[in-house]
Write a structure and sequence with these properties.
alpha/beta, Diaminopimelate Epimerase, Chain A, domain 1
Length: 162
């Protein structure tokens, strides 16, 4: 617990901006747009620098990802195939929340493997590369299970930094 508190206390949005400068955020936005092509699916990316220290004991990255999934209305897509990638930067922890359209198509183990792939890159300081790899893997799943000519882009492709 002490390590978590220290990580949150020492991590700021400035740390995130150093690891993911504007050029990286622009590249990630393009990667999301490309990953969605050929499918009806939608991808959102949220990068949260840290939490208030009072939350560290009581909140989990999964519960926070679910909050963002709801707040950004990622579940509100025509085909119920929105996907949220949530990165808690202070802990280098990734969570993926997928809408109910994926329930019988993609296993929890598949989502977990994508998370671990990204986290391995983060451990090397390769944040943009790790996120891009995860986005591309999710794009492959979107095309596999929801192949379609992309209609209206129902969710913004721009990553959210909080």
């Amino acid at each position: 617990m002490k390590n978590r508190l220290v990580a949150h206390a020492l991590t700021t949005r400035r740390n995130v901006r150093r690891a993911l400068p504007k050029a990286s955020m622009d590249a990630l936005e393009k990667s999301i747009g490309m990953a969605e092509r050929g499918s009806s699916g939608q991808i959102r990316l949220v990068v949260e620098a840290n939490w208030p220290l009072l939350h560290v004991k009581h909140v989990t990255p999964r519960s926070r990802a679910l909050e963002w999934f709801s707040q950004l209305r990622v579940w509100d897509t025509e085909h119920n195939n929105g996907v949220l990638i949530y990165l808690l930067f202070a802990e280098r922890d990734v969570e993926i929340v997928a809408d109910r359209g994926f329930n019988t198509r993609v296993s929890a183990a598949q989502w977990e493997a994508i998370c671990r792939t990204m986290e391995a890159r983060f451990g090397k300081g390769e944040f943009e590369a790790g996120l891009t790899e995860g986005i591309n893997l999710i794009g492959d799943l979107l095309r596999e299970h929801f192949a379609a000519d992309m209609g209206e882009n129902e969710q913004p492709d721009r990553p959210v930094l909080v």
